[in-house]
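It is worth pausing here to work through a concrete case rather than discussing structure prediction in the abstract. The textbook approach is simple: state the sequence, then state the predicted structure, then interpret. We follow exactly that order.
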Amino acid sequence: MSSPHAYPHKSADALSGRDWGVLLVLCGAIFLEGIDVAMLNVALPSIRADLGLSTGSLQWVMSAYVLGYGGFMLLGGRAADLFGRRQMFVFWLSVFLLFSGLGGLATEGWTLIVARFVTGVAAAFMTPAGLSIITTSFAEGPQRNKALLVYSGTGAAGFSIGLVVGGLLTSVGWRWVFFAPVVLSALILLAALAFVPKAPRPERTGGSVDLAGGLTVTAAIVLIVLGVERASHTGLVPTLLTLGAGLASLLAFVVIEARSANPLVRLGIFRSGPLVRANLAGLLFAAGFFGFQFLVVLYLQELRGWSTLETSFAMIVIGIDAVLSPLLVPRLVARFGNARLILGGLLVASLSYALFLPVGADWTYPAMLPSLLLLGIAFALAYGPLTIVATEGVKEEEQGLAGGLLYTSFQFGAALGLSAATAVNVAATTSSAPSALLDGYRSALWVPLAAALLAALISAFGVRTRSIGTVTATGGPAVDTAAPAELPTAR
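Step two, the predicted structure:
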């Protein structure tokens, strides 16, 4: 269980000035990650036109990032625990800065995809390090919950602001969506060096980093997503072979972890029901969220002919989560508990996707608005509470691992959602005629809806009417977050 000794400024529930300084730096990093993804999202059609990319290749500009992010996240989270959270955060933020700039200089599709992959790897080490700094710097309970909800709200703000900024920059030139994060990264790097305090180097208990586990889990993620993506344009046998290789790599990873003296992932951590549910729900929620937005951008720009700026302003309403997460969600958590908010958010997301299913070729913006607004509300209700549930009750020395697991789930889900939505869209689009394009979008929109409904079903098992005194994977009493009386208190 994390405790107030990692940093010297622990106190009661209120955040001190030093607390806010550390939190703002880390919020800057998650804001950077959000704005980077969002700006690229609205720039995709311009990138396609300039570099001559197919729909499948265009999808890989996004998927390369989330594969690097999700594939190396577990290794990144464990590295933060083993080698120091501040050290990992600062170093990989520098790598993120460098390869963001290289992405803006790309002249061919493959060089852009490689740059995005390495940028994703950098984020895979940087993000869990930043999250674990928060979870070890703030006492578990109201103080940490407040910090995490501000953190998640800032990430949401980055995404919503990125939609508009990305449209503005793309109207000048799509390369600026890569150069702008370079400037922001440099500012955050300087602030991190100044404000994030140094902590004692983690004690080493012997052994080496589990590279075999890192390689097998990365191979599993890459191969499974590749198999899903190839399903629409390759034969059945190659697709099954790719998926089979991915599942074999996943099995090898489990065997390696079970036998390793210093595993990348201690398998006992999965004895925690809330942690497992949070990760599964996070994976499916991200799959629906990113798949839906990818399809909406293609619909607005390629079928409707909207500009990148018009698309950005149309989708900015999703950014309502940036306001709701820090202002309203903490009160809802205190009243209803995390589990009920997660379930409610997933049901709202399902409604959002369902309302968009009958999309027409001439829909007005008011017809689209309910879906976009509900999606922003859903994100606010689900994202922060998922982060809380996935990290509470976990030992301090495994906070990087817990954060790595959660963000792996998010990014693996995003990659699967993008791949599945693209595969269905390509398979259902029989020609370049507007009616055929619309049929493809309508068919693919069932992917995010199915993902959200399945996530809601899984999360429903986490809703309890009373505390259950079982034992968690950390050896302590289980904490059920369904009711306010069961919320953990600061220690």
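Step three, interpretation. Residues 17-51 form the longest helix (35 residues). Residues 211-263 form one domain.
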